[in-house]
Structure formats: structure tokens, C-alpha cells
Amino acid sequence: MSAVPLRAVGSHHLLAQLSEISAGRVRLCFAPDVVDALVGLESVCGSEPDPPLLALSWPQDTDTNGAIKHVVTSLAGVALARWPDWYDEHAPFAQPDLGASMLSEYDGRVINRLGETRSTLDPAWTRQAVQHCRRGIRPVLDGFSHPVQMKQLILAAAQDNLVLLMALESREAHTTELLCFARAAAWIAGETRVRVAAIVPSEFREAAALDAISYGAVLLEDRPEQGMARASRSPSRAEGRSNTGNQARLPGGEVRRSTSRRPKDEPSRLVLPPIIGGPHPASPGEQLLARWLARDAELAPLFAFNQRVDTTGGDSFVVDLLWHSGKIVVEVDGYRWHSSPHAFSSDRDRDYRLLCDGYRTLRLPHDEVMDDPALQCEKIRDVVRMIQKEVHPV
Questions:
Q1: Could you say which DSSP state residue 260 is in?
Q2: From CA 344, how far away is CA 283, in angstroms rounded?
Q3: Using one digit for the tens of pLDDT, what is the confidence trace for 39-52?
Q4: Which terminal Cβ of the chain has fewer Cβ within 10 Å, N or C?
Q5: Worst-scoring range by mean pLDDT, 37-51, 102-116, 279-293, 322-336?
Q6: Regarding beta strands 163-167 and 195-201, do their DSSP bridges make them parallel or antiparallel, or are they unpaired?
Q7: Residues 370, 285: contact at Cβ < 8 Å?
Q8: Cβ pair 144, 132 in contact under 8 A
């Protein structure tokens, strides 16, 4: 790669640069730690990120075609997770109980209506994808090319101004893998006209295999953004002593660090505002926990998912699960996005700021929620009863 000096930017400036990427182009970004870069980037997105971002992990030891299939499958997973809230609407395909013929007619009317304002919508793809999602199947469809499927999945599940973040986390990637990564990023951008940000470790700044996407490359600064919560805030009580920031988290997939245990998180994360009042569409743990809590007569009336907490100290957070009157926050933490030193520190800073306003935080590991949701519900119940005893001692 050419030794042209790279402009160093922080997360705020990088987000602004991502919004300026032309359709069908790639922006190469070097980061000291790719996971920390993604965590920091989401933290400055606020509650209404513009542009919306979708982070996908690059699969190791695969060729370009295999990687593109991985992107299609990941996008389909996000689409299924966000179902039925497609096309920036609330459940456009929701319907009363209908027979097969009437349901087909109903879907046709909805698709025609959506197509009136979405010129790139493919009616044939949409009809089949809707049928897949109704059966709980990822909408990866036979008979449609990869570019068509990616375009339609992005249109249905995200927004047409989406920026796709392709994250290559391994510092040990070989030349062939880097070349495949660059080719796939360029192909996806060119074929789908989506904007792509390719994020790779800073160790590859001189890698010639990335030359094809290196124009306009930037270097993400090796320091956390200071004092950034999900939304703007005023100075906190701890300002001037110690402030590691309030970085939000991305529940993610396969961990880069050497480990024999693979977390059960999804390998992709849509960095869109969580659905207030419901489990995050990209967190299997939140979704599973929501189903268990809904059947629990004691806990279901108390808790709501993805609630905003505005503190008297000026902070604003969206928390995974909140018992408002009891001031209990429950977070479902995926190992991958909470294991780095920066994320670990940021989580505790966030807990501190909530605690200063009277909120106590219970953190549940994502893997443990997936393995034993009943036990996690009992942990929540124990905390609830502890609070109830404090308020109404025997």
C-alpha cells in the first residue's frame, strides 16, 4: 500500500465521513482494535443514527464467494430478527387470520402499496421472503442472485441509505485473506450500490493487498471518545477525575481473541435504534429472555425492554431491560463486545452513572441467557424481591 499519510479521526469524525461515502464506494478505515472501533462508533450514533449502520464480521479462512454468501446469510438473519417491522413501518404484513388464498391477495396489496414509494422493491422477492419469515426461516431465497438478495434485504430490514461496516478483526490475516476481503468489499459496493466501510487492524496499513480500496483511507485514533453516551449529555459528577466514556455495546458474534468457547451471539449487528419497548432485533439473548419473561406472571408486569433512562446528572441511556419504579436495570452482555479493556471500563462507568441516580444494574452474560433462561429469570426475581423487601420490610 502506498505510504501516503493517513488522516487520523475520532469516532465522531468517522461517523460524519461515513455519511459522505458515495453510493457504491468503499471507505477503508484502520483501527488499533476493530471491536473497540465498532463499540465506539455506536456510542456516538445517538438514538437515531444517521446514517444507519450494519456491522458484519468477516469470516476467516474463506474465499470471496464464500464471504459474499456469508454477507447474504447475515443480512437475512437481521431481516428475520427485525420481522415484522420491515420497510420502516410497524408490521406492514400483519393481518388477521386469513386462508391461504386471501393471505396471498392481502400480501399482494401490501407489496403494491410499498412499491409505490420504493422503486427498487422486487415484488417477487418480497412475496417469497414474507412467506419465509412467517415460518421463522431466514429469507435466503433460491432463484435470486446475491446482489438482488442483498439489495432487497437491506431495503426490507434496514434503510436504503445504510452503511455496511465490514469488520476484519484478525491481526493474523494472511495476504490472500486480505485480498479476498478487499475484492468482496468492492464487489458488494459496486453490485448493490450500498456504501461500505471496511474496518481492519492498523497493522495492515502497508498491505498492498488492500490497495484496491485504499483511496481516502483513514486511521481511527487510538483513544476512546471521551464522555460520549448514547445521546448528548452535560458534564457528570466524575468529570475532571476519571472519565472513560459511556460507550454503548454491540452484541456480536465470533470472538477474535484466542478462545475455545464460541459465544452464541449473532455475527452481525444492526446499529439502528432498538425498538423501544421490545427486545433488540439483533440480540438473540434479549429475544429469548423476552419470551420467558412474558410467561412469568410476577415479572412480566414490571419490566420493559429497551427503555430510555435520563438521569439527573445529564446522562441519557437506552438500557436493555428496566423496572422503572424499582430502578433496576438488566443488561444482556455478549462476551465479544464487552471483553476488551475499553468496553469493560466503559460498562462500569455507565453502571456508576446510573448508580449515582439510584439505578442498580444486573448484568447477565448472553451465553448464560441462551443456555439457561429459567435461571436468569430467577436471578431477576431475586433482585426484585430484594428491592421489595427494602421498600416494604417485614
A1: S
A2: 19
A3: 777 666 655 566 77
A4: C
A5: 37-51
A6: parallel
A7: yes
A8: no
CA distance 229 to 44: 7
Contact, 58 vs 168, CB < 8 A? yes
Cα 173 to Cα 171: distance, rounded to the nearest angstrom: 6
Using CB atoms within 10 A of its CB, is residue 253 exposed (0-12), middle (13-18) or buried (19+)?
A: buried
Output the pLDDT for position 57: 80
Tell me the β-bridge partners of 200: 30
* pTM (2 d.p.): 0.65
Q: How far apart are the first and last CA of the chain?
A: 71
Domains and CATH numbers, the chain: 7-220 (3.40.50), 274-391 (3.40.960.10)
Q: Check pLDDT > 50 for residue 255.
A: no
Length of the chain: 394
Please give the distance of CA 370 from its chain centroid, rounded to a whole number: 18
C-alpha cell at 233: 449529555
Return the closest-CA partner of residue 139 out of 71, 54, 77.
Answer: 77
pLDDT digits (tens, 9 = 90+) for 309-362: 988 888 888 889 999 999 999 999 887 666 667 678 878 888 999 999 999 999
* CA-based nearest residue to 361, from 327, 386, 337: 327
Contact (CB, 8 A) for 282 and 312: no
